[in-house]
Specification:
By secondary structure, this protein is of the alpha/beta class. Helix content is 44%, strand content 15%. The protein contains four helices and four strands. It has a four-stranded parallel sheet with strand order 3-2-1-4, with helices on both faces.
Length: 126
């Protein structure tokens, strides 16, 4: 009989973390790296993803992949998925932690900025 704990081991799993360069996303990347998960950090800011990749390598000696991805662009997301499948053969986990806000009053927030926030925070995870 198989031990139930065998089903919960994460070693060898592949995780894509959008928004994995700061905050909760960064913490998730670190925690999953400690569990020997192959991490793909997806973010629109290429320099941030590279910095996070280097940090994980230094702290956990885990090789990670950093991909520049525009979560609002389905073509960019599909390209990311295809690249990950091509390189690793699978995707086991998605951590959708990308999000944004503007630190302004309601009066200062433009309709255009409101739409940017809603599009990324609500539609981006789709």
């Amino acid at each position: 009989m198989t031990n139930i704990l065998e089903h919960f081991k994460l070693q060898g799993k592949v995780a894509i973390i959008s928004g994995g360069t700061i905050g909760i996303g960064q913490s998730m990347a670190l925690a999953l790296a400690q569990a020997a998960v192959q991490i793909i950090i997806a973010d629109q800011n290429a320099s941030s993803t590279k910095e996070s990749r280097v940090e994980l390598k230094q702290n956990e000696d885990i090789e990670t992949v950093a991909l520049k991805v525009d979560i609002n662009d389905p073509t960019s997301v599909n390209q990311m998925i295809n690249n990950v499948i091509e390189q690793f053969g699978k995707i086991d986990m998605l951590v959708n932690k990308v999000g944004m806000t503007y630190n302004v009053t309601e009066e200062e927030l433009t309709f255009e900025d409101w739409n940017k926030v809603m599009n990324l925070n609500l539609n981006g995870i789709f």
